[in-house]
Amino acid sequence: xxDVSRSSPAEARTAVVIPAAGRGVRLGPGAPxxxxxxxGTPMLIHAVRAMAASRAVSLVVVVAPPDGAGxxxxxxxxxxxxxxxxxxxxxxxxxxxxxxxxxxxALPPEYDIVLVHDAARxxxxxxxxxxxxxxxxEGAPAVVPALPLADTxxxxxxxxxxxxxxxxxxxPVRARLRAxxxxxxxxxxxxxxxxETVTEDVTDDASMVEQLGLTVVVVPGHExxxxxxxxxxxxxxxxVLARRRLxxxx
Length: 250
Ligand code: C5P
Description:
Elements: E1 14-19, E2 37-38, E3 41-42, H1 43-52, E4 57-64, H2 69-78, E5 86-91, H3 96-105, E6 113-116, H4 126-137, E7 142-148, E8 155-156, E9 168-170, E10 178-180, E11 184-187, H5 188-197, H6 206-211, E12 216-220, H7 231-248
Parallel strand pairs: 1-4, 1-6, 4-5, 7-12
Antiparallel strand pairs: 2-3, 6-11, 7-10, 7-11, 8-9
The protein binds cytidine-5'-monophosphate.
Cytidine-5'-monophosphate (C5P) binds next to helix 3.
């Protein structure tokens, strides 16, 4: 168990923003991705529980689909969640970046550390959450959990038409690459400044902090923190839950 779980109330308080406003088009037709069920429980509820499992987290802000805040509030009310954690729901925006910003806007002033966690990563273990918080507490302005890559990665010149052969431009050295997950952890003021400063599209929050010229550090990620993106990921997520149930039974 990490030191994070034994923190005193005098230490920096931690809130989590969960962007959950995406449609999840790559998963196929149906409800917004975060509201789809894994073993009968919405993915978002799994993600909220994964964050609230950390004793260091005292507030979770869920960023709902723009027209779905009422539905998400009802969902949170209908599921058992830890009493020591507060929950807020706000409507999201057109892009992940905008949704995160709307979540940050809703944060009360007393939180000094902010984690941003994709609803689409419902199974991240609490030790990974605690490791991210610990690294921010130790002074890093931005922290990302990440894993080495199994595949070699090529940079290509994207073809104008899908399916056309694409010329390879470069092969980065695999040993220097990491696949980045969430939750990503931040000093609150740094993350807010990053969102105020960076206007072009990005795919994660840490890259906005990099653009401020600050150092982002990596801590070990976890294979169960994968992002549920395609239909096969749902099968994998349910298999992970089944394995956990089996292990908990012994
Ligand atoms: O699309 P992608 O898988 O990168 O989305 C990552 C996370 O961002 C998901 O949890 C999704 O719900 C969220 N998102 C959002 N608002 C959007 C688009 C995506 O909150 N407009």
